[in-house]
Amino acid sequence: MSVRGGPAWAGGVAAGAVLAWGLPSVSILLEPVRRALDVRASVVARDGVGLTFDDGPHPQGTPAVLSALADYGAQATFFLVGEQVVRHPELVHEIRDAGHEIALHCDRHRNSMRLTPRQLRDDLDRAHERIAAAAGESPRRYRPPYGVLPTTAWREARRRGWETVLWRSNGRDWRARATPASIAGRLLDGVAGGEVLLLHDADYYSAPGSWRRTADGLRIVLESLAARRLAVHSLAGAGGTLP
Question: Per the residue annotation, which of 54, 55, 107, 173 is the catalytic one?
């Protein structure tokens, strides 16, 4: 589950289609700050969007999302949770073998602001170990749970050489009252190309069964993006140039 934020370039944190480095003394980027820092130094080509999923893998949600992506020839980045990777390592293989990017979310889904520096380091170490072992490769991108990025989390990610990525548009698919139509509407609102989009392929930390609405909403999203001639990329295949 995550919170919505607009695009921002605040060094070391990427909100939306932005990847940047050099965070000042900002402990957490709140929504008004994200919206105010509306700089789109995108690593996502303007003729496409970067599609991302948080909180998996999930035994029903991940296959449903993978099926929709395959039907539309779309690629995505999956920010995985270590404790779920241990339970379903075969799904990590499915994500990887389908050509999608595997990235790191956390080991246990907790607000980073509530962790001590040592707890945060231990969580990131366990997450990396579990995800890399299952994927057969080290993830290079990181997104903190709930989109909450304290300075300690940013520093730890940077020290490990990870690119920290938030988002530009969030379908809010984790809510109990979300519908496929509302998810698609929120995700597509204002999308013109170059954005990073956020959905969730699991319901471990959100409304039970939310993955079903996500999978149905995803098909609406993919159909609309195809009609707009916007390609759907993983962040690894987004067509931009990283610093």
Answer: 54
46: left (phi over 0), alpha (psi -120 to 50) or beta: alpha
Q: Which two tokens stand for residue 111?
A: 């607000």
Query: Is residue 31 left, alpha or beta, with left meaning phi > 0 and alpha meaning psi from -120 to 50?
Result: alpha
Q: Is 47 a catalytic residue?
A: no
Cβ atoms < 10 Å from Cβ of 243: 8
pTM, entire model: 0.83
Q: How far apart are CA 102 and CA 91, in angstroms?
A: 11
Q: Is 93 part of the annotated catalytic residue set? A: no
Catalytic choice (100, 105, 109, 200):
200
pLDDT along the chain (243 residues), means of 10: 34 32 36 35 70 98 98 97 97 97 96 93 97 96 92 92 92 96 96 93 96 98 96 79 31
